[in-house]
């Protein structure tokens, strides 16, 4: 592609990156903490595009009009197929990809890690915990800090091959490409009809029940459900708390 075309592609990429950063679309790709770097990258790309066009103008103004002509006086042009490079940009601008969900969760082993410690839990009934915090305390602290507490946990629903329900959040290190699930099995008063990928807020109590994840062999703790209700998907579908 010539310099002008390169500048157009750079400008489109920068604009798409800025749009993703300002609208929250970036949360489908990277963790929230990377937003400043993403916005800075968009500004740099647009600045590079503008600079390319600016410095190209005097060069073209003084260029020999016959310099690019080949045999027969015809100018050599870049293949039009090179413009297909902009198609992924339009896909980024026009189509918001869904967050990773139940299919990925049930085909990937649980990423539960041993926490650095178990800080004292605040007062409250029910006590809101994220999926990774509940699972870590249930597995590695053997539920000692969870006993005699009503726990509130929110996640999306995933069903295994036998229809058994799990509450899941995708844990994020950097970006969606490295997202891995943390899973909680559900038992007790489970809704009779559950659809995969719907978001559910459950209230329940700790149970000693746990199973081994058939994918990867990690431990999956359970929560004894006393009540539940569907909730809208959160603005940020990924959980970054598991790794600080």
UniProtKB/TrEMBL annotation:
InterPro entries: DUF1980, DUF1980_C. Residues 138-238 form the DUF1980 domain. The keyword tRNA processing does not apply. The keyword Transmembrane applies. The chain crosses the membrane at residues 7-27, 33-55, 81-100. It holds the Pfam family DUF1980_C. Keywords: Membrane, Transmembrane, Transmembrane helix. This is TIGR03943 family protein. It comes from Streptomyces mordarskii.
């Amino acid at each position: 592609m010539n310099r002008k075309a390169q500048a157009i592609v750079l400008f489109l990429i920068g604009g798409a990156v800025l749009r993703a950063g300002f609208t929250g679309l970036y949360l489908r790709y990277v963790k929230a903490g990377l937003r400043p770097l993403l916005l800075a990258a968009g500004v740099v790309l647009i600045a590079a595009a503008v600079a390319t066009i600016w410095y190209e103008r005097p060069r073209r103004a003084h260029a020999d009009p016959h310099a690019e002509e080949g045999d027969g006086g015809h100018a050599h042009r870049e293949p039009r197929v090179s413009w297909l490079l902009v198609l992924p940009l339009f896909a980024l601008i026009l189509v918001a990809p869904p967050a990773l969900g139940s299919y990925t969760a049930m085909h990937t082993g649980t990423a539960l890690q041993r926490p650095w410690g178990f800080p004292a839990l605040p007062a409250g009934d029910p006590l809101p915990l994220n999926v990774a915090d509940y699972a870590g305390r249930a597995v590695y602290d053997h539920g000692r800090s969870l006993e005699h507490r009503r726990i509130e946990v929110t996640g999306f629903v995933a069903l295994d091959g036998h229809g058994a329900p799990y509450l899941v959040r995708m844990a994020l290190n950097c970006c969606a490409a490295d997202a891995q699930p943390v899973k909680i099995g559900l038992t007790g008063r489970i809704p009779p009809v559950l659809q995969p990928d719907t978001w559910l807020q459950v209230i329940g109590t700790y149970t000693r029940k746990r199973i081994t994840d058939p994918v990867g062999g990690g431990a999956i703790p359970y929560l004894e459900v006393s009540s539940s209700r569907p909730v809208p998907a959160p603005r940020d579908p990924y959980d970054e708390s598991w790794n600080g």
